[in-house]
Amino acid sequence: MKSFAIAVFGLLATVAWAGNITVTSPNAGDFLGTSNSVKFLITGAVVEVTVIVTATLDSNPGVNVTVQRNFTPNSEGKIDNNVPLNFSPSTPEGAYTLTVEVTEPGNTYNVVPPIPVIVDVKAPKFGNSNPLAGSYVRGNVPIVIDLVEPNVEEWRVQINGGDIPNNSGSTNLVNVNWDSSTVVTDGPQTISVSVEDKAGNTSNKEIAVTVDRINPSSTILAPTFGSAIRPGSTLAVVVEISDQFQGSIHWTGVRVRMLTMSDALIGLVPRRSINSSGDTITWTGRIKTTGNTPDQFKIVIDAIDRAGNVAVVQEVVVSMTRGRTRGEDRNSGDTRNRNGN
Question: Domain limits at 161?
Answer without folding.
Answer: 125-211
